[in-house]
Amino acid sequence: MTPSSHRPQSLSDLFFSFTWLALQGFGGVLAVVQRELVERKRWLSQEEFIEDWAVAQIMPGPNVVNLSLMIGGRYFGLPGALAALAGLLALPLVLVLGLALLHDRYADNPQVAGTLRGMAAVSAGLIGAAGLKLAAALKRSPLPMSWCVAIAALGFVLVALLKCPLIYVLLGLGGLGCILAWRRLPA
Amino acid sequence: MSAAPETLQLVLTWSDWLSLFGHFLLLSLMSIGGAISTSSEMHRFLVEQHHWLSQEQFNAAIALAQAAPGPNVLFVALMGWHVGMNAGSPGAALFGVLVSMVGIMTPSTIITYTAARWGHRNRELRAVRAFKQGMAPVVIALLLSTAWILGSSVTQLTQDAAAGWRLVLLAVAAGLVIWRTRLHLLWVLAAGALLGAFGLV
């Protein structure tokens, strides 16, 4: 259904599109991805975006990175996936290293230290907000809400409070969640 | 008011670099919900166990990557950068970036690329749906844990208990604003930066 003009034209189109997208994404890229790829470039419909985002979220690796791999791969196979990934990371990597150099030079300045402290506190809040936003998706889970909350709460206690190594939590608690979900889904 | 910054001088052997690389490869496999969800494990490994990274550097890496444009996974590059700098040279720092980024990206990239193609073809399968739905509560728990660990480590940057509480308050307020409004993240980060620069938090 997608008209041929609404797709990446070439590997360099993929690279620069994802570079441009990454450069707009201060503090997180989800909103920018949706606006650029769905509303402006129309490489994806809204429905395709939601479905791809769910997969990107559940696979290991950063969500936006995963999404770039999936979209690049769909149009141009492995070279497409790598072009999109490189576009997403190359220039932002140079920028962030430049920032780190500046920060090292001025780290003793109390204003710089204060700025970073304020931003670190906000970052903690942003990550918490992302968790809370995602929690809304649990309403559509086949698991009863009380089970979801119990699993999430137990996970929080194990990781945040008891500092349990992540692998046990993912395998144990995640595995439990998958089995429970499997039993409640229609065959 | 601010604690004396801890400076580290490391001598890293090849086996240390290899162990760092191996650890990031492993973390990549576990980075469901994004690399940020493994940051509590990175903290345990880099700061608490090996002392390759100071608490200030750990926090700065996450805060800088959040503030800069681009995917937040670049905080991993900054951790590699700082470990290399602690080992003594910009060359080592660039090597640290290479080791940490290749480590954190390679396994997840291979898995996601392969699995996404498979999952796309089999998206109606019961097992695929069970995996997506069953993992969701754990993903949420990991994000909230990261927020908690980051928030409590921020308070350790200051000796002053009242200042610590103001930082916690700022974190909670920022979280509520982002959760409940459509305000751009950048404004909230800028507000935190300004409050910090003027010594209000």
Report on this model:
The complex is a heterodimer of chains A (187) and B (201). Chain A is mostly helical. Chain A has helices spanning 11-24, 30-40, 46-58, 63-106, 110-135, 145-161, 166-184. Chain A contains seven helices and no strands. Chain A is flat, with a radius of gyration of 20 Å. Chain B contains eight helices and no strands. Chain B has a domain at 14-133. Chain B has 201 residues and is mainly α. The model of chain B has no long low-confidence stretch (mean pLDDT 85). Chain B has helices at 14-30, 39-49, 55-67, 74-86, 90-121, 126-155, 161-180, 185-197. Chain B is globular, with a radius of gyration of 19 Å. The interface between A and B is large, with 104 and 111 residues.
Brief summary:
Chain A is mainly α. Helices cover 77% and strands 0% of the residues of chain A. Chain A has seven helices and no strands.
Cα-to-Cα separation, first versus last residue of chain A? 31 Å
Q: Which radius of gyration of chain A do the C-alpha atoms yield?
A: 20 Å
The helix fraction of chain A, in percent, is over 70%
Using the CA coordinates, give the radius of gyration of chain B.
Answer: 19 Å
User: Number of helical runs of chain A?
Assistant: 7
Helix count of chain B equals 8
- Total number of beta strands of chain A: 0
Estimate percent helicity of chain B: over 70%
The backbone outline of chain B, from C-alpha atoms, is: globular
| Secondary structural class of chain A | mainly alpha
- Helix-strand string of chain A: HHHHHHH
Q: Regions of chain A with pLDDT < 50 over 5+ consecutive residues?
A: none
Main interface by residue count: A-B, 104 and 111 residues
Shape, principal axes of CA atoms of chain A: flat
- Class based on secondary structure composition and strand pairing of chain B: mainly alpha
Largest sheet of chain B, in brief, is: none
InterPro entries (chain B): CHR_Transporter (IPR052518), Chromate_transpt (IPR003370)
Membrane topology (chain B): Multi-pass membrane protein
Transmembrane segments (chain B): 20-37, 58-81, 93-113, 134-151, 163-179, 184-200
Family (chain B): Belongs to the chromate ion transporter (CHR) (TC 2.A.51) family.
